[in-house]
Amino acid sequence: MVTNILMIIFTPIIAFFIGVIFVGLKRKIIARIQRRYGPPVVQPLLDIIKLLAKKENISHGVMFDLGPVILLGAVIMTVQFLPTPNAPLLSNYGDLIALIYISVVGALGMALGAGEASNPNASIGVAKALSLMFSYELPFAIVVATIILRYQSTNINIIIHGQSYLHWGLFFLPITTIAGFISIYGAMGEHPFDVAVAPQEIATGPMVEYGGKHLGFLMIDHMMHTYIELALFVNLFMGGASNWFFFIAKMFGVYFVMTVIETVMPRFKMENAIKYFMRWPTILALIGLLTVYIGG
Amino acid sequence: MKRIEYLKRIYEGRLIEINPKRLLITVPKDEFISALSTFKVNSFNQLTFVTAVDWIKESEFEIVANLYSRENRLNVFVKTRISRDNAEIQTITSIYSVAKKYEVELAEMFGIKVVGNEDAGKPFLLENWKSKPPLRKEFDSVAYAAEHYEARHVEEKND
Amino acid sequence: MGRLDEREAMEILDQLRKRSLWMLHYCTACGAVELPPTMTSRYDMERFGIVPFVTSRQADILLVTGYINIKTLRRIVTVYEQMLDPKYVVGFGSCTINGGIYWDSYAVAKRLDLYLPVDLYIAGCMPRPEAVISAFRHLMRLIDEGKADGYRRYKDNYDWFKANQKKVLGE
User: Do A53 and C49 touch (CB under 8 A)?
Assistant: First the structure.
């Protein structure tokens, strides 16, 4: 009980540092694939310190300032509902459906804040980000329904317990895992689907007017968001972990596959990305759902 | 090459060959637009540029248009002369619509008034310009640059 | 351990700030053709932490690459005033020093430091990527010693800079 309360307080900080190391390793891996040396592994931390030490801040009103704060609050709350090894945090009080519900609040707060900036690039970016979110939630909802049907519960701890002794979802529900992987890939905003933050086309979308301390907050949120998506995938399909070392190793394996795919892909157009999500991942998720429903 | 023979027959003797890929014709000022439409109908359907040359001693401008034919792979230069004071020409966007921006350059840089093109009077490259049009030969660029923009003073030069 | 006063805090922050400078990807004139070789794999610029960014609110360094057209100068001054402190200006190429090969043109201004506070010049027409990287390392050394204070000079002599701009831009 005391361990649980201590972990509730410290897990967001641990999540932030894990995110920093993973994003730094991602830039290093991309650099090595392109046959050059990359920046040092702690580079995201130096970027955040530089941004928080800027002397001026431009503000467009109260809602503009509150956008990153709402995003930070939603991200910290989402971290509490994911169980870590040896400490279930708050996941006995909120189940899988509540987790999906909460993870959307942050993006909506950010959209309100970015719409307040009087720049047409921000409005275009916000419209594209929300349309993309609407389309990748569709296969993800079918995947969640498949998992609930198989393990007969919505509590994440029971889902993890049903995958012990290497009965992972990766081996026993392969089609559903592939559909879930593609959906979470879309949620992270990596390269085939980073229409919302397209630097060369719409000047980084919603973040176009944020500079200085606001941008520092947004980068902190980005690091923790990486941890949330990877921990969700590992808990649902790879059986959680019994101690922190295996947990981080499994997350890094998934992230390595995502980075290698991201290095070689270009960027989809908006219509192509939405049409893609509604075609193949949805078909795979429906096949997985039918298999579990008939097989019992 | 039948069209070329037809054109040579119409402009008897005025259509000269400079080298095997280029033809040249000089027309008076009133026949400029009809010559361009004749050339366009007979396979010369791409306008490469239209510009002006400043003959200051004869006090005339020479308008030069370069047309290209893709079937026969030939260039033709169509030239005409207009007077230098109160210079004005009719627009040729009714024949070649791509000439719109070239006429803006004629109006801004040479001071030739183009009748019929409503973009030709507004400033495009030079904002807040108060002296003569800069591509005329009486405009002294070195004196203008020395007067308006400060140079860096150095004591010793290593030229 | 007592509290740090502001000057010591700025020194520590300068040592951390010099390792992640962000460049504004605004290709002003013909000198910008030397930026893609510097950014890609052969003469890698990202290992020093310098990344190109596209908005003026997020960038630290303004690179004025090449000649200074009058029409561009009006826009560069607006972009410079939109950036957030602390910010640095680097003059790239010989045309920012004394006019370069366009010294006798009717539309090119000859000196950049009458209109914007410049921290560093890079000579050459065009400078090679090795020269660009060596200039960035020199800028990092200047930031470390506290001598790169262009933004403070702009605020202190604001009237003088504005008078020069008004004389040549004419508004």
Answer: no
